[in-house]
């Protein structure tokens, strides 16, 4: 007996959202049905094959998704996430730097409790969150997260003149994820898995010599030590965003209904 495909709503149709649709289109056996996408301008023409687009969160929820994916940015998560969760739908989020604002964190968690729903932080452009959160159980003494992106990605035209790497930020993850809302959500994910946004040290570097987005995480604690590095190929649509982010959303969706879940 085959079960019905998972009904999924999506908020946002930019580099990641379009990437999710492209990945799923290449996986005809994936039992995932994107029943609707919430966009800011539903009247804008969309690519052939795009699922129905809607302009309000109420219209998205009326399509009866079982789960909603957020791929639209900090403000969208902060403003729309609570309604999704209060309706009882789980929310898979990537713009997790928004949780650095205590009022956003509190309203999302309160809405999840009220709706009996869960917020899942997608691994997005990073990895190792499973090991970091396991290490946190025994106690972590230090977490450092370094993000390097091509200079023009972080600085625009000004970056083209850079000949040496330039450190743009060094401080707590809480400050950094709010200063670079489109570039270091990964540091918020690492923080939430580990020792929190105030104890995670973040460095952001604009590097004229690289073409991929690099993230390095070092964790020390009772368990031993961990070093995780990833080099992400940027998407064409938004070079701040790695290709792997859309893949991580698809993986998170597939994991929800898999008989064997890894990690
Ligand atoms: N956790 C992680 O690893 C990562 C997280 N991110 C987060 O994901 C976000 C999206 O990334 P990406 O797809 O590359 O960004 P894009 O800028 O390519 O796309 C964002 C899309 O979201 C839409 N949008 C914005 N606000 C709303 C809203 N209120 N309702 C509906 N749609 C909305 C935009 O619409 P419009 O076309 O009208 O502007 C746009 O189409 C980033 O801003 C970042 O915060 C990104 C990369 C990695
Ligand atoms: O895609 C990446 O390299 C990471 C990113 O933009 C983010 O964390 O916001």
Automatic annotation (TrEMBL):
Gene, per the UniProt record: nadX
Job of this protein: Specifically catalyzes the NAD or NADP-dependent dehydrogenation of L-aspartate to iminoaspartate.
Pathway the protein takes part in: Cofactor biosynthesis; NAD(+) biosynthesis; iminoaspartate from L-aspartate (dehydrogenase route): step 1/1
Ranges where the Aspartate dehydrogenase domain occurs: 163-250
Source organism: Sphaerobacter thermophilus (strain ATCC 49802 / DSM 20745 / KCCM 41009 / NCIMB 13125 / S 6022)
Pfam families, alphabetized: Asp_DH_C, NAD_binding_3
UniProt name for this protein: L-aspartate dehydrogenase
Keywords: NAD, NADP, Oxidoreductase, Pyridine nucleotide biosynthesis
Residues that hold NAD(+) according to the record: 125, 185
This protein's record includes keyword Magnesium: no
Catalytic reaction annotation: L-aspartate + NAD(+) + H2O = oxaloacetate + NH4(+) + NADH + H(+); L-aspartate + NADP(+) + H2O = oxaloacetate + NH4(+) + NADPH + H(+)
Homology family: Belongs to the L-aspartate dehydrogenase family.
Domain Aspartate/homoserine dehydrogenase NAD-binding residue range list: 12-121
Other remarks in the entry: The iminoaspartate product is unstable in aqueous solution and can decompose to oxaloacetate and ammonia.
NCBIfam families: PRK13303.1-3
EC identifiers of the protein: 1.4.1.21
């Amino acid at each position: 007996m085959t079960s019905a495909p998972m009904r999924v709503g999506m908020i946002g149709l930019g580099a990641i959202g379009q990437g999710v649709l492209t990945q799923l289109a290449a996986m005809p056996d994936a039992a995932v049905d994107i029943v609707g996408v919430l966009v800011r301008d539903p009247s804008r023409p969309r690519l052939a094959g795009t699922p129905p687009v809607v302009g309000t969160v109420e219209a998205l929820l009326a399509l009866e998704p079982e789960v909603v994916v957020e791929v639209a940015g900090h403000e969208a998560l902060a403003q729309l996430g609570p309604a999704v969760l209060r309706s009882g739908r789980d929310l898979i989020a990537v713009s997790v730097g928004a949780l650095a604002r205590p009022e956003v964190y509190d309203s999302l968690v309160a809405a999840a409790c009220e709706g009996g729903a869960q917020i899942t932080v997608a691994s997005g452009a990073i990895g190792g969150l499973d090991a970091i959160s396991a290490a946190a159980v025994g106690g972590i003494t230090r977490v450092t997260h370094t993000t390097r992106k091509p200079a023009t990605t972080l600085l625009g035209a000004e970056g083209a003149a850079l000949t040496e790497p330039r450190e743009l930020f060094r401080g707590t993850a809480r400050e950094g994820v709010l200063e670079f809302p489109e570039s270091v959500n990964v540091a918020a994910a690492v923080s939430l898995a580990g020792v929190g946004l105030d104890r995670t040290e973040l460095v952001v570097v604009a590097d004229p010599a690289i073409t991929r987005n690099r993230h390095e995480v070092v964790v020390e604690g009772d368990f031993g030590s961990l070093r995780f590095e990833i080099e992400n190929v940027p998407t064409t649509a938004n070079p701040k965003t790695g290709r792997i982010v859309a893949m991580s959303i698809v993986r998170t969706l597939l994991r929800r209904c898999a008989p064997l879940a890894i990690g």
